[in-house]
Design a protein that fits this description.
heterodimer; A: alpha/beta; Rossmann fold; 6-stranded mixed β-sheet; 4-stranded antiparallel β-sheet; disordered N terminus; B: mainly alpha; MetI-like fold; 0% strand
Chain lengths: 270, 238
């Protein structure tokens, strides 16, 4: 066993692309019109781990994760340059369909945004129905499993026909997570998923995020440093569109190398 | 209210020679139906295009043209359709020409209200769908349009109510007819025309008939407005 592992490790190391890394950004730049919001970001997202992106408002955290599933380019005037690799393949390659990328890289937004005209059940099923991936086949099962994974099943199993907007904000956010999970993405991006929620709902989401890393790779943007230190394995600190420091969460919070990072996590600015 | 004593079953169903306004009521209902059939799909499609895909120069031009058409004098629309359809294409005053003229009035209003109600749908709803890997057209069709449904229904019904009372373009297109529906390419009666004609007559009985027709037209428009109220109440409930 040991020898096999070591040969595998060797093989991985010899390849230019590290298979341990689900996603990699290489020299990633992004603009909104003439304003550059990301400057030469090189960052690795490890498989089945939680990577947190922290930094003060307007530092490009959201823009960065929106580049990871090509949502950034949907804003008019927005553009990018550089590469983002998903399993070693550049998702900004010309022949790549962004719609397919978004099915593999799911997203949960800052404000819970269930579809207003759909029931709880339909919200979870929406991804499968609207992408035509699974037509009616085992839909009930997928919905149930997704809601269970999002730890929402017990609370809504009697009310699946009720509108998705009828439940509380925290529940809505877990519904949105269930909606993303239903498509079985490989990566889940979360853009400040708790910023609109109270502490109890936040605690539930955090617990859920940690559970999710068993099956998915998670990238979470947060302006709450305690949250980053509680849930994440790796932390990246962005400031003014540049990556200041990146490393294991423990190292970043206990032994920050960059004085700017230290200032930010001790609350001197931000 | 002077029209009220006129109303009777006879008045509503008989043709002009029988002292009724049956052809006019029938004509107006046919016009509303035909115009809706032509105008609503085109109007809604234009509105969807402007709101969801209208981030380019071509759409900006289209938006301006649409705004101008909204305020276009209806008599000019009538003359234009008279020139193109009545004289050049069919060679006869006709029901279809009337419907086309009314469509020119209906389309810009429907397009405008469609665009406005789609823009009211929060962008995060669109993003939620796109982030699931749903195609843009499918997002528009299955997520954005349902969310804007009550706004669409309200706007469309109001536009239909507006064209139901139009008179000027009808003078130049359907002309009027003493008889019931003769075919799409034949002249046809309509309530606004009936009112206009009757009011110019010296006979008291015909003037009274005009009053009756006016009351019926008002009732039709009123019922459309009540439908709007019901449709928009549904929106507030949510």
């Amino acid at each position: 066993m040991t020898s096999m592992n070591s040969t595998q490790d060797k093989a991985v190391n010899q390849q230019p692309i590290d298979l341990d890394m689900k996603m990699q950004s290489i020299g990633l730049n992004a603009w909104f019109g003439a304003k550059q919001v990301l400057k030469d970001i090189n960052l690795n997202v490890k498989t089945n781990a939680i990577t947190a992106i922290i930094g003060p408002s307007g530092c490009g955290k959201s823009a960065f994760i929106r580049c990871l599933n090509r949502m950034h380019e949907l804003v008019s005037g927005a553009k990018t340059s550089g590469q983002v690799l998903l399993d070693g393949k550049n998702i900004y390659e010309k022949q790549v369909d962004p719609v397919q990328i978004r099915r593999r890289v799911g997203m949960v937004f800052q404000k819970p945004n269930p579809f207003p005209t759909m029931s709880i059940y339909d919200n979870v099923a929406a991804g499968l129905r609207l992408t035509g991936t699974k037509k009616g086949k085992n839909l009930d099962e997928v919905v149930k499993r997704s809601l269970e994974q999002a730890t929402l099943w017990a609370e809504v199993k009697e009310d699946l026909k009720k509108p998705g907007t009828s439940i509380s904000g925290g529940q809505q956010q877990r519904l949105c997570i269930a909606r993303a999970i239903a498509l079985q993405p490989e990566v889940i991006l979360m853009d400040e998923p708790c910023s609109a929620l109270d502490p109890i709902a936040t605690a539930k989401i955090e617990k859920l995020v940690v559970e999710l890393k068993r099956d998915y790779t998670v990238v979470i943007v947060t302006h709450n440093m305690q949250q980053a230190s509680r849930v994440s394995d790796y932390t990246a600190f962005l400031y003014l569109g540049a990556l200041v420091e990146f490393g294991a969460t423990k190292d970043i919070f206990e032994y920050p190398k960059n004085p700017l990072t230290e200032k930010y996590i001790t609350g001197e600015f931000g | 209210m002077r029209g009220a004593p006129q109303i009777s079953l006879n008045f509503l169903t008989q043709s002009t020679s029988g002292g009724g306004i049956g052809p006019a009521i029938q004509g107006t209902l046919i016009l509303i139906g035909l115009t809706s059939l032509i105008g609503i799909p085109i109007g809604i499609l234009s509105g969807v295009y402007l709101a969801e895909f209208g981030n380019n120069k071509y759409a900006a031009t289209m938006r301006t043209v649409n705004d101008i058409l909204t305020e276009f004098p209806s008599i000019v629309v009538g003359i234009t359709v008279y020139g193109v359809i009545v004289i050049a294409l069919i060679g006869e005053y006709s029901a279809i020409a009337g419907a086309v003229a009314l469509s020119f009035i209906l389309i810009p209003i429907v397009a405008r209200t469609t665009e406005e109600s789609l823009k009211l749908v929060p962008n995060n709803v669109r993003e939620a769908s796109l982030a699931l890997g749903v195609h843009k057209w499918r997002t528009t069709l299955s997520v954005v349009l349902p969310a804007a449904k009550s706004g669409l229904v309200t706007g469309t019904l109001l536009a239909v109510a507006r064209i139901a009372g139009e008179t000027a373009p009808l003078i130049m297109t359907i002309l009027g007819n003493r008889y019931f529906f003769q075919g799409l390419t034949q002249p046809m009666a309509a309530l606004p025309l009936e009112i206009w004609r009757d009011s110019l007559q010296p006979q008291v009985s015909l003037q009274a008939q005009g009053w009756g027709a006016a009351l019926i037209l008002i009732l039709i428009v009123l019922s459309l407005n009540i439908a709007v109220r019901i449709a928009s109440r549904g929106r507030l409930k949510k």
